[in-house]
Hints:
The protein is of the alpha+beta class. It contains four helices and eleven strands; from the N terminus they run αββββαβαββββββα. The longest helix has 28 residues, at 196-223.
Amino acid sequence: MLKYDPLACLPSSEELPDSDDTPVDNELQDLIPGLLKALLAIAWAEHMDWFFGVDMGIYYDPDLAAIVPDGFLSLGVERFYDENLRPSYVLWEEKKLPILALEVVSKTYRGEYSTKKAEYARLGILYYIVYNPFRRRKPRLEVYKLVNNTYELHDGNPVWLPEIGLGIGIERGTYLGIPREWMYWYNQQGQRFLTPEEDKKLAQQEAQQAQQEIQVLRERLRSLGIDPDSLT
């Protein structure tokens, strides 16, 4: 007798659209989650059990349209499906709910503080992050944690996320040559992870400093009447 598998009747990720095709009206909606993903790729380079989606559809019901955060993080899933990567994130395939959803507010308000917030809470996503670069009087970054099915706002910058093992916050820096306020991951000591270009610049500075120290040592040996080249 054949066993009925209801999941086999559901559409796969390859058959579903990868996003809602809504164009972004603020470049930060792509750049900020893209930076967070790049930082994770460095910080968690040896780990293959996480996935960070950028402007990707999350399908939670085969009869409903996907929700499409600007960014989301899932833990305990395969980092890569195959060489074609994920076309979308389908909960009945992944069997893991994202632990964090991110929205970057644009000039066109899309319910980030109301309908989207309620939808993520209903799904059970533990952390909901909202960044509004246009705010002046209120905090630009808000970090919510789901407690008893309701999002509670956490104060601080950065905010430590124990279930993820990282902090998240905002500060001024440079990414892709753009100096502005960016969102970063932080370690438990409150130190932010460097961007790829900052990491490269630091390595160059350390190499330059090492060369300078070697040159100072060579000059000191010469002052003592020792030829440094004779020591090699």
